[in-house]
Amino acid sequence: MGKFKYYKELITAIILAGIMVLVALRISDIASGLDVLITAFVPLIVGACMAFVLDILVVRYERWLWPSIKTGWRYKIRRPLSLILSFVTISLIVYFIARMAVPQLVHSITLIVAAAPQLYVDFQQWIQHLSDTMPLVSNPTVVNTLNGESIVNYTREWGTKGGTYVVNTMGTILSWTVNIGLGLIFAIYMLLDKERLIMQGKRILRAYAPDTWVNRVTYVSKVAVQTFSSFFVGQFIDALILGIMVGITLWLFNISYATTIACVIGLTGLIPLIGIYVGGIMGAVILLTVSPMDALIYVIILEILHQIESNVIYPKIVGNSIGLPGLWVFAAVIIGGSLMGVTGMIIGVPLVATCYKLLMTDVEERLASNEGL
Length: 373
Description:
This is AI-2E family transporter. By secondary structure, the chain is mainly alpha-helical. It has helices spanning about 1-25, 25-65, 75-135, 140-145, 150-190, 195-210, 210-250, 260-270, 275-290, 290-320, 325-370. The protein contains eleven helices and no strands. The radius of gyration is 28 Å and the shape is globular.
């Protein structure tokens, strides 16, 4: 019996070693297969994320639409009606912001492109003037770098790269458009059958896992859902406050397109940390066609408001809504952005907040049990 146990362990070790060698030899094929598998699940993942965000509005509409009704036709249409109202709400917000911001942004870019030839001529005259008055600028290396032919060559090179980038971007946009469309359909089905899906998940857990694991998974899921929901609501409130602050301040300083820029800042402010910079650049482009001085004043105002928002408002609103101290909010944004870009910034804060809540609860329970001993 002892020999059988010895040989059994030896055979198991040999099989595991063979599997590891096989994986190491075919790692590229395995990675390609995983990539194909993940790509196939992208619409479902996108749909699940959309369903989660939409459910935040759906739940709130259901609280207003006959919350005490449990039977009858009103109960049957409450979920579809709440879903429709959620789509209408999001569509109206996006339409309002796009209506205010996009036409002015396109107009500003058109004016900048139209003025580019004259700006190029003025730049050449300025370089010529500097080369006549300053010996350093008259250096042949500097002059050759800044002359018209070099700039044209640089522009042509970047134009070629830009064309390739545009083609690749268009393909990516088309792919994501299809994924978002399929994900939206999947999200609708998930929301309509939300209760049944939750019940099926619980039944599967009870069938294949002990009760302790079922209770643990249920608790973790509940904390995660509450934390992510609170984060998205807090992020929306923070972006709304920032947009209102920017709009009122620009109006007080008599800066043009205050409402348009406020809408842009409010929309891009939904992205943690980096969103205000994207909106700030768009606002500066709009104001450059009106007055460079207005654009400079706008940049100074935006930076001051950004410091107030990032150091006072954001930690209080988002941090308090998810129960995470301000220090960890910024740490989560920085680490999430480094790992996964914009997506990591968005999900990093609620993910860290969920782990923080679970850790603190476990610490309190362990300390309480130790004190009881």
